[in-house]
Every structure is written in C-alpha cells, then in structure tokens.
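Recall the central idea of this unit: under ordinary conditions, the amino acid sequence of a chain determines the structure it adopts. In this exercise we apply that idea directly, starting from the sequence alone.
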Amino acid sequence: MKFKALRIHLEPELIRSIEVIDETYLPDNDVLIEVHYSSLNYKDALSASGNKGVSKNYPHTPGIDAAGVVIESKSLKWKAGDRVIVTGYDLGMNTFGGFSEYICVPSEWIVKCPDQLDLRDAMCYGTAGFTAALSVEQIVNNVSPDAGEILVTGATGGVGSVAIAILAKLGYKVVGASGKPQYEGFLKGIGAERMILRDEIDDHSGKPLLRPNWAGVIDTVGGNILATALKSTQYQGHVTCCGNVANHEFTTSVYPFILKGITLHGIDSVMCDAVKREEIWGLIADKWYIEGFSNAVLEIGFDEVIDQINLILSGKHLGRTIVNPRK
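Accordingly, the structure predicted from this sequence is:
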C-alpha cells in the first residue's frame, strides 16, 4: 500500500516535504484508519519545526488530529467501516501523525464520531475545539450567563475562536482579547460582544488585585496575561488555563484565591479519559454545535500545509484550518 504523508527531516537540515511511503512506516498498533481530514494546530507547527520538546524522533509525520474510517482492526471494539476521531495522546508527537492518508493507532485512543457529526465537521473542531469545549464546560458548570462578561484570550486562535462561538451560542456575553485589531470583525462575526487589545489585559503595575471585570475567563496563552486575568476576575469567579503561547510561567500572589475565592481550572485535552471525550464530543455534535461554523474554516490540501505552518509560527494564522489529504 502506497500513500502520501508529510515528512519532517532534520538531517542534514530541516526539510518539510510530502512523500509517497508505504505501511512499513506506520507503527504496529491495533487499528488502521484511512484519514479523511486532519487539522492544523500550534503543536503541529512546533513538531514540523523540529522542536524536540514536542517530537523527539525524526524523520517524523506530525498531525495531532485525525478523523476517518477504520480499514482494519485487531480490536473487538472497532470494526472496518467505523467512523472515528483521534485527538490527543501521542498522535503526531512521537507517534506517526494525522498529516497522512493513513494512521495506525492503539484502540484506546479512538472515539466514535457522533452520528450527527460528519468527519469534516469533527476536524473543524479538532483538538482546538475539543480543548475549547473542555474549557467552556468549566464556565457553564460554574458561571451563569447573567453573571457578567466572559473574557477569552488568544481570541483569534483555534481554541479561542471556538470557545467564543460556543459561549455566544449558550447566551454568554463574551469579550475577545487579541493583539490583532484588524480581526475585530471576525470576532464579532463568531459571537463576541466586543474586542479588546491584548495590552489591556497585560498588567505590569505590580498590584496584587485589580478592578474585577470578568465573571469568568478562558485563557489560552498563559504568562502574565493569565496572572492579570486572575487579578481582574470577579469574586468567586472561574478561570481556565489551557495554553502557554505567551509563556509557560506566570507570577501572581495568593490574594486572588484567598481574598476573592477565584478558582483556576487546568485543562488537559491530551490524556483526557475516554468517557469524558465521548461526553464532550456528544455536546459538540448536539447542544454546542455551531451552525455555519464549518463555513468559516479554511480547508487545504497537503501542498498548502507548509505555508500554513509558517503563518502559525509567525503569529499570522486565523481561526481553524483543516487538512484534506486527498485535495
């Protein structure tokens, strides 16, 4: 069996190329899947750049997302013809990833694609949408829509944009924060009440507490912006954290927690258990499904992946991009 895959080589220099390979490149796992769609994430861009904090072994095929159809299975849980989603775990990190026409993965990494969700839609959400939904779940469980505004940082990114769209659908007043003022129309178009610039939520005053602006926060960037969010959230508010694009470290005091009762929720979409995965994908396919969202998603073929990776690395990528390996 011959098929196409994006391969990243580091020797003698960084080379990204679409290659025709065969099944000997695939790991010996339980389930062979024909990939119909994948999606592009920040972690994929890092892996495709030789970042050994993400992918240790090269040559390598990135792609932390895949949706497709089971071709062969050694597992009793999955059979040929099943429509499935694979996100997280080690896919595309140190295991051959979704930027390929085929993948071979352990059976426990797989989630059934909900009947009402097509495979393209599933990848319009992908890891970014799944992470956004995990974050939204914490807001929905703890903050009512009439409690005040919800701040979403990194608003033009994959996680941020999906979080805004879901929250708006559920009746929340959402403020999107971004360093890209030219995308204000985009943010309002997906449901944000208003946009603020990143500098407005990046406090360097040294004050332990700030004016309480937010009923809740979905932070996707980390660093000092997360610290500022904690200091400026209302009494007994809730803040979620799922990313570190700004910085993996942040400095704050105990005051937001002991004087304002703020709760900080860490969001892990990589090793999330199968039961929770099925629950969240069920919500995405049903009550949290965003009508028309897939129309705003850019679909590309393998020949455009490298250009889009460069946009991500330069901070110029917008929203969600899915990869059709046969386009």
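The longest strand covers residues 31-39.
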